[in-house]
Structure formats: C-alpha cells, structure tokens
Amino acid sequence: MDKVPFVTVSIVLYKNNFEKISKIIFCFQKTEAKKIIIIDNSPSDDLRNIINIDSRIDYTHIPSNPGFGSAHNIAIKKSMEYGATYHFVCNPDIYFNGDVIGKMVDYMRKNKDVGMLMPQILNQDGSIQYLPKLLPSLFSIFIRKFKKPQFYYKKIINQYELRFVNEGVIYKAPVLSGCFTLLNLKAIREIGMYDDSYFMYFEDWDLSRRMYEKYKTIYFPKVSVYHGYESGANKSIKLFIIYVNSAIAYFNKWGWFFDSKRKMINEEILSQFE
C-alpha cells in the first residue's frame, strides 16, 4: 500500500469577503489537507487575519496581482517544496459537505494515470453547472457566451458541454474547470503549470488540454461541491475584455480555425458514450 499522500490546497483571493473565505477554509478543517496556501492578490493585506482561522494556512500577499493562474503557480511551487503528492486548486466561492477530498484523493491514488480530477459542480440551488467540455472552437465559444442564435444554441451546447451524459457517469473530458480541481503533482512536473500568458479565464482549459495529451483528465461526479458562479465577464466590461484577451491567447496558441488535434480529441471523448 502506498504511503499516505501529502495533500495541499491553494486559494487565490482578490478583495474577497472574509466570511465567505472562512466558509471554504472550515470545509477543509476535517480533511487530510496538510497545508492551505493562500495567495492574496488584493491591493491591501486586509485579509491577512485569515491565518488565525487555521494553523495550516500559508499566507502570501502579492498586491501586484499577477493573475489567477500565475498566483496558483506560486502556490503549486510552494506545494512542491512542502513535498506534496496532490494539490487542490480551489476558488474562494466554493464550499462542500462530507468527504469530498478523501474520495477524490483516493480515486487519483488508485488511478496513477489520472493527472486532473474535477467533481460535480453545483449551483447554490443544487442544479448542475455543466463545466466539463469538449475542446472549444471559436464558434462554440461564441455560442456559449452569447446564447445566440437561440434555435441553434441548445443543440450545440448539449454536445459541447456534454450535457447528454448521464449524471453519475465518470468520464474523460479535455476541459475541466479550475474552480475546484485536484492535480497530480507528478504530472504537473512533467507537463508544466498554468500558462502565465492568461491573466484570468482559459488558463484552466489550456492546462487541461496539455494534461490530456499525457494523462487522463477525469470528471468525477461521485462527489459534489457548491460554486457561487457569477459569470463576471457577462456583467463587467473590464472582465469581458480580460475574457476576450484570454480567448485570443488560447486560439493564438492552439489554432483559430485549423486545429486537427481538437477534432481528433473531441471525437475520442464522444466515442466513450457510444
């Protein structure tokens, strides 16, 4: 039997509500997580007192705000220095009940070829957020963001977001959301961390895609977490511009209209359900 794995968690903050952050930290209190690494990108360190909640917290304030992926990279490096085996990337608007951490770690521990693992993500009302996806085309990004034309949206999104798959099925997906993800640090050492060219948005898609090329990227709906999804890019011009810039970075890297691997990988994913 393998030795007990060293598990760490990272949470990136930016002017968050103290009570909401406390809520997710309390969720980790009865888990096997050895370190909770907090990278605070806020202009001030008003949230520093979060360290008083749990002795496992490692707090770093970076007022220059290098971005979501870059801040998690700092935490991942710390995690590796601690000697961690597995690392959870967690949004501050996540919370959960029960043994989510243990079951996810156990699955990855038993399946050495898994590089990334994402649980079922729920809205506050218990409805499912359809976050595992096929690799995106420019068209699918447009359809998902604007939901137009409406008559075509439902048909496209049902396949693109794999909504047709039965709720409890464990399957491979080349795009997993970074709102709550378990990383195999052995795999991360091999394929690399988040790409710093994405300030926010698409960095998780890019990492998932790179991971998929050498390891399995698995959707694991046997456990669930709640996510306060706000779709900020639909409400803020500033965030929408960041979203567009990240989309440009993604398609510059992987191909705008000609992406032969995308077609091959998406066909491979869909073949699981035939």
Order of helices and strands: EHEEHEEHEHHEEHHEHH
Computed CA radius of gyration, to the nearest angstrom? 18 Å
Structural class: alpha/beta
Q: What gap, in angstroms, lies between the N and C termini?
A: 36 Å
Q: Kindly estimate the percentage of residues that lie in beta strands according to DSSP.
A: 15-25%
Helix count, DSSP H or I runs of 4 or more residues: 9
Describe what this molecule looks like in 3D.
The protein has 274 residues and is of the alpha/beta class. The protein is 38% helix and 20% strand. It is built from nine helices and nine strands. Strands 1, 2, 3, 4, 5, 6, 7, 8 and 9 form a nine-stranded mixed beta sheet that branches. Helix 1 (18-28) links the parallel strand 1 and strand 2 (33-40). The two termini are 36 Å apart. The mean pLDDT is 91.
What key attributes describe this structure?
nine-stranded mixed β-sheet; 274 residues; alpha/beta; 9 helices
Brief synopsis:
With 274 residues, the chain is an alpha/beta fold. The chain has helices at 18-28, 68-82, 100-110, 138-146, 150-160, 185-191, 203-212, 237-254, 260-271, and strands at residues 7-13, 33-40, 57-61, 86-90, 94-95, 114-122, 171-172, 180-184, 216-227.
Helices and strands in order:
Elements: E1 7-13, H1 18-28, E2 33-40, E3 57-61, H2 68-82, E4 86-90, E5 94-95, H3 100-110, E6 114-122, H4 138-146, H5 150-160, E7 171-172, E8 180-184, H6 185-191, H7 203-212, E9 216-227, H8 237-254, H9 260-271
